[in-house]
Amino acid sequence: LGFRTVQEKFTKLNQELGRLQSAYRDVMQGGGGPAGEEIQTRMEDSMSKFLSVKAALLEPSTLEKQTSLVAGTSVWLVKLATGSFCPWPIEPLTDVNDVLSCVP
Q1: Which of 35, 80, 83, 92 has the most crowded CB, counting CB atoms within 10 A?
Q2: Which of 45, 100, 50 is nearest to 75 (CA)?
C-alpha cells in the first residue's frame, strides 16, 4: 500500500475510535449491558488496527525515505522555478530530460 492510502486508513480508524468511545460513554451512562460489551469489543479491535497502522507509519526507515522524497522533490521544484543547477553533485543521466537530472 502507498503511504497516502495507509495515512487515510489511519485517519478513518482514528475517527472511528472517537465515535466508538463516544458511543461507549453514552451506553455506559445508560447502564451498560450487552450493548456496552459489544461496543467495547469493537473499540478494542479498532484500537488494535489503529496501533498497527500507527507503528507502520512511524517506522524509522519509512520516515527517513519520506523525508528524502520531500527534500528531493523540493530541490527539484526550486530548480524548475529558478532554472538553477543541482545543489549537489549528481552523475548526469543520458536517457533523462535535463530538468529531471536533479531528482535523486
Answers
A1: 35
A2: 100
